[in-house]
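Reopening: structure tokens for the fe (ii) ion complex, inputs below.
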Amino acid sequence: MRTIKHFMPTKVVFGRKTIHRIGEEIESLGLSTEKVAVICGKSAVSNGYVEIIKKHINGKVEVFDIVEPEPTVEVALRVIEEVKKFSPELLIAVGGGSPLDVAKVVSVMLTNEGELSEFIGVPEAFKKPGVPLVAVPTTSGSGSEVTPYAVLTDRRRFKKAPLISRYLYPVLAIDDPELTVTMSPIVTTNTGVDALTHAVEAFVSKRATEISKLYSGKAIELIGRFLPRSYGNPRDIEARENMMLASLLGGMAIADAGAGLVHTMAHVLGVMYRVPHGLANGVFLVPVLEFYGLSAKEEIEEIGRLMGFEGDVYRVLEKLREFLSFLGIPKSLKEVGLTESDIPDFVNLVMEKKFLMGNLPRIPTERDVREMLKKNL
Ligand SMILES: [Fe+2]
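Re-run output (same inputs, fresh job):
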């Protein structure tokens, strides 16, 4: 058996109504709540979640509801600047992956010297832990509450800007599935498919371990059963609860085993055509697994069994395509904006991300990527 490394410093409190325990959980960790910055988007305020949190915090709370979806480096810099003026002792991020990731960046940029650009893609640049961060997800997708990653968009350089550091783990995650019932069917699909992609990519990763596979395998099984139910009826709380668990497990799995080529392709698509992250993963999930093909035969067939699709690799992929189509994921890349003339640029941007390739069951050449795009246009 290979060497196993597992690191997960975040205290997770999972379950219905746990949002009402946020005050006591923060206290149990010995954290100060004298000055608390809440970082979120507008919907966390309009859905009343910020108000609930404020009720459970004794100290001074200031709300920074200025995070936008698929946040850019500029958005993050603005939030850092605003929050800095308040000099909080604790941060609480409320929302989907976007506010959580921005709050992670704020947390470390309040304590580490230097420009944000110096930290992008450079784990060694972080010298100090950030201001403690509590993550309160309101979607079931990114699993960001338990990962050492934060992803921003760099529009100027036409790239995603990932930050990776053990200091990006929140100290506490409050996973209350009741906060996810406000997601629309479209957001449910996009975030749920992101969680599925995390689980699948971690499952087939060359860095997968006996521990990470427990998380990713269970997440795949739960998503197969409960994502179509959450999509069909947003108020199905049992389905929402299981999807939130799947998202959490998916996050823990990529924290150990890493993401893969689906995320690489999705990041390029996201930057080039402003396609939401989960949707972009959804359109590449089957094409990439098809490319892995027999190189990941056992894993893909196991994924099929976990999702209730019996059969060989090809049958599993056919069923997975139907599953995604039911959820409203487009079948062709054209539908999300890709044109034939953009393919060369797209291929170049994918091939620049060589650092990820070691995780993959089959490493693509430039030609492979081009063929994959053409075949699925
Ligand atoms: Fe993702």
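The beta strands are 11-14, 35-40, 60-64, 90-95, 133-137, 149-154, 159-164, 172-175. Residues 142, 194, 198, 263, 277 surround fe (ii) ion (CB under 6 Å). Marking as resolved unless the reporter disagrees.
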